[in-house]
Q: What sequence folds into this?
């Protein structure tokens, strides 16, 4: 009798019909909590499904679904028609435990038991920001999602499924969908000057996975790697996670100036570079510097990891040829991504590796997640082979050039004396230079509080900078949002001077 009263008391609290959680799940959670906290003791009889439904004012099928789930998980026992009871098999000493209202992150005063590698990973700043995903000024790395060819993509996707591609639903090649690899190899040869065979192309889940693979395959813990300074935090994180010793290399008007570190004390196994459009300064590495870097790699038996993250977006002339096309000794690993061209959640990128590294990279790729999703690869392959990719790139180059021009004009008008924003021949962001002596991190915090998303240049550097700056993305927002964002940015900067 007491147990039935306890159940009726629980049932007296109505379920929330406006909740996103289904009613059966709400009832399941309520009864499970009551069992685990001891409010319903082992052996307690529950009302019939019909009686519980009447008590709660819900459909009987809803109650049956909750009971069936509890029966399947062992919280209840019994048979239909003979009564349903709280399981007698529940250990008494495990009950009467208060369930937390939020996830438990560890006992108070105790550090989580992480490995040294885990602790190193936990200490690395995440390369992707935590800002809301809606388009806003001036988020970095956001493509023009408002100009994405949704209907075309939907048609290609639907066409793929209509063909009932059972072969795409099985396990795939760890290196990626062969037609996509062939399409990428053909595109790179004509547009980026990359010399490769489809077998050298390995599909990865975005450029970050490509960085992780390169670090694990090519470097041992304790090895050294040159990185651009300032440079991409995602690369820094991938190398640190692999236990690599980072050697920051300054960037000048010709790109990475490795002559300052190329001695025995700073001997490196790998150099990470963004030669077409250095991130974040936008500098193009000179031909002389490229040839010298290739000569160094060959002589030092080292590797060059070329990240061509936004090489397609050059607005003055044709896109520059990749460094990989100059490599005659197979020392360059080329990294590209579709996140900046299409949309970030696509999570498809690619590596072009020397012949000698194919087997090692493919095996390492298989250990990550077996293989990349095959159906999106098939759709993307069709997008490339039918010529849609080239047309989409042309449209985006024109659109981004227009948006950069709008940004530079608005900045020249509204940010004069506050922020110097020069134009750039390519890329997806501009740099707003602050006056000397101003802390760009403090400015970025104030700007963010005002609803503007930027990144301080100093957060990408390992050494103090002579002048602070803000990185300002413009490709993912329309002209009106750019102008409004510049006006708002100017207001915040004036108030904080």
A:
């Amino acid at each position: 009798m007491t147990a039935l009263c306890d159940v009726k008391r629980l049932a007296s609290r109505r379920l929330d019909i406006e909740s996103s959680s289904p009613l059966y799940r709400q009832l399941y959670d309520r009864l499970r909590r009551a069992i685990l906290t001891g409010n319903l003791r082992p052996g307690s009889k529950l009302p019939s499904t019909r009686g519980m439904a009447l008590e709660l004012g819900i459909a009987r099928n809803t109650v049956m679904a909750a009971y069936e789930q509890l029966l399947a998980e062992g919280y209840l026992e019994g048979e239909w028609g003979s009564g349903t009871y709280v399981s007698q098999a529940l250990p008494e000493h495990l009950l009467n435990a208060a369930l937390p209202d939020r996830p438990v992150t560890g006992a108070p005063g105790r550090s989580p038991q992480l490995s040294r590698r885990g602790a190193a990973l936990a200490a690395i700043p995440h390369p992707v920001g935590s800002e809301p995903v809606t388009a806003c000024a001036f988020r970095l790395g956001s493509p023009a999602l408002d100009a994405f060819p949704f209907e075309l993509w939907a048609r290609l996707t639907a066409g793929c499924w209509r063909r009932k591609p059972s072969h795409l639903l099985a396990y795939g090649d760890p290196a990626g969908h062969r037609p996509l690899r062939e399409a990428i190899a053909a595109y790179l040869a004509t547009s980026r000057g990359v010399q490769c065979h489809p077998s050298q192309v390995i599909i990865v889940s975005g450029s970050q996975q490509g960085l992780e693979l390169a670090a694990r395959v090519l470097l041992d813990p304790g090895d050294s790697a040159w990185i651009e300074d300032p440079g991409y935090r995602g690369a820094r994180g991938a190398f640190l996670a692999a236990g690599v010793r980072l050697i920051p290399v300054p960037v000048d008007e010709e790109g990475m100036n490795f002559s300052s570190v190329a001695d025995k004390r700073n001997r490196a196994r790998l150099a990470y570079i963004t030669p077409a459009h250095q991130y974040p300064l936008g500098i193009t590495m000179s031909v002389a510097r490229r040839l010298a870097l290739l000569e160094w790699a060959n002589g030092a038996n080292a590797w060059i990891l070329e990240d061509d993250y936004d090489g397609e977006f050059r607005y003055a002339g044709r896109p520059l040829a990749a460094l990989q096309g100059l490599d005659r000794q197979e020392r360059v690993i080329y990294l590209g991504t579709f996140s900046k061209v299409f949309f970030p959640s696509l999570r498809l990128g690619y590596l072009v590796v020397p012949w000698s590294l194919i087997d090692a990279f493919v095996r390492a790729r298989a250990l990550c997640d077996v293989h990349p999703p095959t159906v999106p690869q098939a759709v993307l392959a069709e997008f490339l082979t039918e010529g849609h990719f080239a047309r989409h790139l042309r449209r985006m180059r024109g659109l981004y050039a227009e948006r950069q021009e709008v940004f530079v004009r608005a900045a020249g008008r509204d940010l004069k004396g506050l922020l110097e924003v020069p134009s750039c021949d390519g890329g997806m962001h501009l740099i707003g230079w602050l006056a000397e002596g101003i802390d760009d991190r403090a400015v970025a915090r104030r700007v963010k509080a005002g609803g503007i998303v930027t990144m301080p240049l100093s957060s990408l550097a390992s050494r103090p900078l002579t002048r602070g700056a803000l990185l300002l993305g413009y490709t993912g927002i329309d002209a009106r949002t750019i102008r409004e964002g510049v006006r708002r940015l100017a207001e915040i900067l004036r108030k904080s001077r």
User: Anything to note?
Assistant: The chain has a mean pLDDT of 88.
